[in-house]
Amino acid sequence: MRARLGAVAAAAALAVVVPAHATTPAGPTPQITDVTGDANFINGQNFVDVPEQQTPVGASSADIASVLFQTTYANQTVKKTIVKMIKKKKVKKVITTTVKVPTGFTITMKLAAAPGPATIYRVTATKGACTDLFFEYTTNSVTEALIGSTDIICASDDEDATYDIAPATVTGSTITWTVPASQIPLNTQLTGIGAMTGIDSTALTGPFYDLAGGTASFTVGK
Question: 3-class SS at 79?
Fold first, then answer.
């Protein structure tokens, strides 16, 4: 009987240590997800509409895996005066709290491999009158693969605006643009989100390595 009770107690202890419902929290959902292995110049080109095809030979450094738009926040200290009734008297007390304030957003393009030379990486969206808003990072040359230029432009000429942002950052196989609210204000809605990679247009105007699109939109500050 003692042996049986001991076995039951051990089983109960194990059940507490390793709960059956334990899960890993899911991360944010990208606005674009794309299959890898399809950066091969033949998918969704302007001159012919073909389904995405994965091929043994492809440019992994230009192969889009996902694109994620995320609002950025900064902590701000706020002082608030509260009034309490203590023994029928009003007593004021100042409390200090920390709140998160939206400051802009980031766009993170994840690739199948680290960015390569002489390649343009572009995320596209529609913003108000601008039907073709481009967020771009371009690597310069074979010898300067990771020294590139960063731009936000309204390629459709529907909007006369100049944007000023810091250079995009490259970490492993990801490229991240950081856009402050001073350049694209809070509550701005970005729709028609897409992405592409191609040969650096300063070297040659040619077809795209990879094209990707999604149906989700993004509102700055949400």
Answer: strand
